[in-house]
Design the sequence.
């Protein structure tokens, strides 16, 4: 990918129309939309500007040395605890609790690219099901119908392959390109699910099965989950949106720029964004308006860091709920081996899904819903397979272990169940009171323990997975334990949207209730968690927000 | 498991325990391995940068316990010791002191169990396995296990996975593009799709 010539260089001391903090799933869309609509835009991204040529099939570096995750300039640790009564600790040797990629394109660069639209019910479950005591269970201030046009825009403009399924909500346009070619895991999952009377369907993925918008089709190399795409077939914002933003000549991407404060004036308006540039020098970019799209962990952290005498609990936090209601989606993993070779290391992760258990069902005895998919999961790359992919209770070294490696790598698959997360105030992002990063910024502290209903739903899906895999003819099936998550890649709900400033951080247009020229749009805006694949909805929200923000700016309403 | 009669391991096994400590203060297996190391260095055009020859001999024995040679090469022949050398010069450098401490503790374990023997690599294969079983919960073993698997299956540019031997072992064919069918179970589906596509083209 070649970067356009004549990219703008804005003066930090002159106001640009918008500073966007973060260039990921939401920030990339907003940058493209607002620059296309004629506004001057500066995007501040803490990670480097990698392109497809920089991505490698290097499992060691990407998966184990966190190449795409680490702060490129300095150590930026995080802490974790399950409950607020515990002292959070840094988990040595584990992945960071808030698991996100740093770099232009953000986590859309390394994601697995499952792109499920929400269902109509996701936006109004509180009305449909009634209250849940002691939780933040609430309706969204918008409906599926309001968001639908933007789902279609994501599918066509970012690029999603798929085929409408039996349970999905009405759509205005078909998918632009057909589903990815089915893998052995998909064939087996489909066979087993049909035998159980279920309705499997091709998986919608933000990966191109045919060329679209000047980008090529996937070559089935198999290095999707956790990796950057080497051919730009994965529809990251790096591949789909950022080039269009830069082509306008009005969007300046500033990589290696770590924001640590958003300044406000006496009138309570945002004035400039303070950051450390690639050389560690402090800079401040003036802007008429600021959009934070830094993800559900970094966004609340930045709001806390931007506290002032006017907003002592953090910017845009008069409600006191910034950082609260973190939702990560529950998951269960069921592994299986088959007689013949599946060779799941080839191709995309997921080619078939089951949405029969998507909706809440009172018969189950707990709240929740979920989706299931078939994939290699951790068996797509050799080192992860060797560490995690073999049956439990067997030798982990020596001659038998070697023989097992030889046998299982090509004969394995998993079924993942992904579930709702009940929004709970006790699950949250705060600033760690003790630990700081190398530049003195308080570390992200995650407090998280799944609701009992979330774990029950994950177990329910695991029970179904065992049945499906059995019906598909698996020779061995084993369950990964269902337990509370300690690493969250879906960072949702920490600045939720709503009509009431007392119970939400942003309004239905993503404008902060407290600050007229501050917008927040990313996973933090979610009111409910959906069923485990949030990025599609993050991007639909971003397209929608961009349209409204454009109108506000043109009408002098910012 | 069948061990080829000509494998280096068999030779070490038969010679090492007989020789015991030698006149130069190093053992026969050590000399043997050192000379093999020299040959491999020559082949690889590189020498160890971050570990000593003695450590490399111990490591060879240890990593071959984790992935032993059988009809296919074991971890040391696949280059895992070279990988560990590279790792201690880079992403594992912080762990090197703990690793050396672990090696010392292992040596003490060996010496207390077998007073006549100095080093892990001098034990018979069976003795090595016994000792390592008793050390499975140590940080050293955890590190070794992790590094062995990384060295088996990393990109060969990290000095492990020599000539893709680790990948070949498990059936991972590293290419940058694939076309379906990918595996046994999707082959029929894709041949049907192809047949239908051909039919459409004929129409």
Sequence:
């Amino acid at each position: 990918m070649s970067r356009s010539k004549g990219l703008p260089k804005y003066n930090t001391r002159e106001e640009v129309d918008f500073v966007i903090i973060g260039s990921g799933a939401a920030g990339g869309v907003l940058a493209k939309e607002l620059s296309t609509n004629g506004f001057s835009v500066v995007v501040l991204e803490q990670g480097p500007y990698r392109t497809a040529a920089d991505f490698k099939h290097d499992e060691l570096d990407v998966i184990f040395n966190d190449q795409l995750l680490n702060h490129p300039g300095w150590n930026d640790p995080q802490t974790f605890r399950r409950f607020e009564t515990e002292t959070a600790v840094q988990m040595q040797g584990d992945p960071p609790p808030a698991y996100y990629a740093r770099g232009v394109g953000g986590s859309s660069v390394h994601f697995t690219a499952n792109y499920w639209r929400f269902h109509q019910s996701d936006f109004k479950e509180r009305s449909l099901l009634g209250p849940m005591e002691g939780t933040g269970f609430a309706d969204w201030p918008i409906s599926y119908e309001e968001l639908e046009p933007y789902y279609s825009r994501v599918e066509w403009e970012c690029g999603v392959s798929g085929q409408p399924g039996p349970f999905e909500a009405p759509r205005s346009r078909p998918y632009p390109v057909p589903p990815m070619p089915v893998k052995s895991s998909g064939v087996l999952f489909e066979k087993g699910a049909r035998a159980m009377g279920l309705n499997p369907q091709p998986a919608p993925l933000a990966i191109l099965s045919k060329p679209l918008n000047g980008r090529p089709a996937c070559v089935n190399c198999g290095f999707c989950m956790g990796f950057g795409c080497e051919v730009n077939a994965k529809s990251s914002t790096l591949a789909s949106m950022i080039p269009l933003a830069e082509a306008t000549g009005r969007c300046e991407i500033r990589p290696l720029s770590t924001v640590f404060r958003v300044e406000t004036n006496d009138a309570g308006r945002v004035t400039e964004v303070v950051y450390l540039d690639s050389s560690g020098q402090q800079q401040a970019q003036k802007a008429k308006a600021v959009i934070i799209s830094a993800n559900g962990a970094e966004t609340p952290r930045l709001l806390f860091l931007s506290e002032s005498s006017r907003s002592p609990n953090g910017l845009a936090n008069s409600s006191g709920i910034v950082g609260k209601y973190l939702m990560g989606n529950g998951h269960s993993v069921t592994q299986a081996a088959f007689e013949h070779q599946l060779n799941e290391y080839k191709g995309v992760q997921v080619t078939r899904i089951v949405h029969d258990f998507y909706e809440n069902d009172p018969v189950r005895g707990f709240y929740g819903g979920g989706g299931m998919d078939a994939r290699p999961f951790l068996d797509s790359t050799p080192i992860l397979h060797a560490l995690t992919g073999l049956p439990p209770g067997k030798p982990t070294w020596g001659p038998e272990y070697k023989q097992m490696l030889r046998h299982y790598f090509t004969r394995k698959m998993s079924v993942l169940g992904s579930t709702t997360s009940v929004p709970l105030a006790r699950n949250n992002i705060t600033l760690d009171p003790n630990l700081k990063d190398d530049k003195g910024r308080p570390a992200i502290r995650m407090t998280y323990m799944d609701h009992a209903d979330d774990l029950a739903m994950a177990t329910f899906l695991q029970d179904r997975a065992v049945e499906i895999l059995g019906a598909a003819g698996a020779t061995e099936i084993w369950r990964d334990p269902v337990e509370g998550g300690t690493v969250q890649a879906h960072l949702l709900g920490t600045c939720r949207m709503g009509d009431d400033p007392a119970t939400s951080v942003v309004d239905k247009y993503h404008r902060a209730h407290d600050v007229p020229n501050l917008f927040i749009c990313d996973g933090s805006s979610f009111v409910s968690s959906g069923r485990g694949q949030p990025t599609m909805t993050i991007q639909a929200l971003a397209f929608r927000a961009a349209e409204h923000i454009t109108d506000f700016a043109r009408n002098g309403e910012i | 498991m069948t061990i080829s009669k000509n494998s280096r391991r068999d030779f070490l096994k038969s010679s090492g325990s007989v020789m015991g400590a030698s006149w130069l203060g190093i053992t026969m297996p050590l000399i043997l391995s050192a000379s093999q190391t020299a040959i491999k260095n020559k082949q690889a055009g590189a020498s160890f940068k971050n570990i000593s020859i003695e450590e490399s001999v111990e490591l060879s024995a240890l990593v071959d316990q984790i992935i032993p040679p059988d009809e296919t090469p074991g971890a040391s022949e696949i280059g895992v010791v070279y990988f560990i050398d590279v790792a201690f010069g880079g992403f594992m450098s912080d762990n090197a002191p703990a690793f050396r401490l672990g090696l010392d503790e292992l040596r003490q374990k060996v010496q207390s169990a077998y007073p006549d023997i100095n080093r892990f690599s001098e034990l018979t294969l069976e003795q090595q396995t016994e000792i390592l079983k008793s050390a499975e919960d140590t940080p050293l073993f955890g590190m070794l296990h992790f590094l062995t698997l990384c060295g088996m299956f990393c990109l060969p540019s990290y000095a492990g996975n020599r000539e893709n031997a680790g990948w070949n072992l498990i059936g991972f064919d590293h290419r940058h593009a694939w076309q379906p069918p990918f595996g046994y179970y999707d082959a029929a589906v894709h041949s049907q799709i192809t047949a239908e596509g051909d039919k459409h083209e004929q129409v």
Q: What stands out?
A: The longest helix of chain A spans residues 452-471. The mean pLDDT of chain A is 97. Residues 163 and 418 of chain A are 20 Å apart (CA to CA).
